[in-house]
Amino acid sequence: MAPRSAAPASRHRDGTRDPSPPAADRRRAWLVTALIVAFMVVNYADKSVLGLAAVPIMGELHLSNSTYGLLASSFYFLFSLSGLVVGFFSGRVSTRVLLCGMTLVWAVAQVPVLVVASVPTLLAGRILLGAAEGPAASMSMHALYKWFPPARRGLPSALQIGGAALGTLIAAPVVTWLITGFGWRSAYAALAVTSAVWAALWWRVGHDGPHDVTRAGRGGTGTTATPDGRDGAATATAPDGRLPYRRLLSTGTVLGSIAAAFGAQWALSLSHAWLPAYLRTQLGLSAGAAASAISALSAVSLVLLLTVPSLMDVLRRRGVSSRWSSGAGQAAAVCLAGGAMAAFPFVDGTGARLALMTVAFGGASVAIPLHYMTTAEVAPPAQRGALFGIVAATGTLPGLLAPFLTGRLIDAADHPSRGYTTAFLLSSAVMLVTGCCALLAIRPERDAARLGLARQD
Predict the structure, then answer these.
(1) Strand 231-233, strand 223-225: pairing
(2) For residues 139 and 193, what is the distance between their CA atoms, to the nearest angstrom?
(3) Structural domain range at position 195
(4) Which domain CATH number covers 48?
(5) Coil, strand, or helix at residue 240?
(6) What is the pTM of this model?
(7) N or C: which terminus of the chain carries fewer CB neighbours within 10 A?
(8) Closest by alpha carbon to 231, among 244, 249, 218, 217?
(9) pLDDT, tens digit (0-9, with 9 covering 90-100), for 163-172
(10) Does a structural domain hold residue 6?
(11) Contacts of 259 (CB under 8 A, 6+ apart)
(12) Residue ranges of the alpha helices (H) in 183-251?
């Protein structure tokens, strides 16, 4: 009898077997988790460097708010499309190869601005970086899920998304120190080297785990999780265990998860692009004080990310439905953050305003790991990477709109503070609407039953 920790070898239609995936190894699983957290740290440091360097870049290159907003939004020109495309290839290409390739492109994307500092090179670098980072969150989560059964994914998911908050927590002071001490180009050079080093480490360590179903998918056999957490045959209409994407995408759970992701990402893209500039130009903070404020915000976000998803796992194991744990949790996070977004521009006192900003920008991030958890419950594992890619691609569309629109609103207002206030109120409206839609639509148990999928415990 095979050990309980070993996943069964997949069988081709001609009766031959693929080699068995690696046996479950808790230490290896957590090593992979640590590397993926580091991956997300680098990811968010890359993403936030333009915002942290906004004031010196705008001063040196004489940029208007609208032009800077265009540069910030350019990161998302190919972000969603690449996330979608790579998601569909994730069932055929190892996540070891995918994540290594992404980070090498991150390193290359930092180079143009080091050669010539201009709007075209900034634009080219941000577009290339966005294309390589579009699949990052969904594919790293997909890689992580290959090492943990469904009922044990809350903490790893939280750690993965927590890497985003940790990235900002670390990047804000370190990148600001580089910018103020050595010029803003030094931050780009440091991130290029860091990305290349991570790629080398991942290539050595980042193999696919025992809950990997891509081998079965290549062999023509789809799999899904059974109630005891092991991989078994999927209950689906197609011979290979897959379901038509139109059925998956039409479920309320997927649509609601996309809505929650959309609202959360609107706040997060606004934070990356404009929060450092807002703290410095509107609240009068120095570069160091602004970096400290952003780090504090990220620390609160990290605490929430490490506790809330794990709490959802506990509730689920105690019999609370996913609709009222992870579903309602992500909806509430987006709505609460939207309410704080509407309030803080009108509050007097820097301390009170920073506290509300922490809820508005930090609280929204809680929705991200939860929407992956709910989406995974209605996705056959062989299609999970592709579905994650679709949800991420549509959910991150605000990055294409929010930064540029904010810049236009600031330039069009009779005073920058009024432009910022209008942008924050618009963000609040988007978040409240999408949060309410998520609350009404997400019902994983119902949708999984309608799709004929086994319950994933």
Answers:
(1) antiparallel
(2) 22
(3) 27-210+233-451
(4) 1.20.1250.20
(5) coil
(6) 0.72
(7) N
(8) 217
(9) 777 877 888 8
(10) no
(11) 434, 435, 437, 438, 441
(12) 184-205, 214-219, 245-249
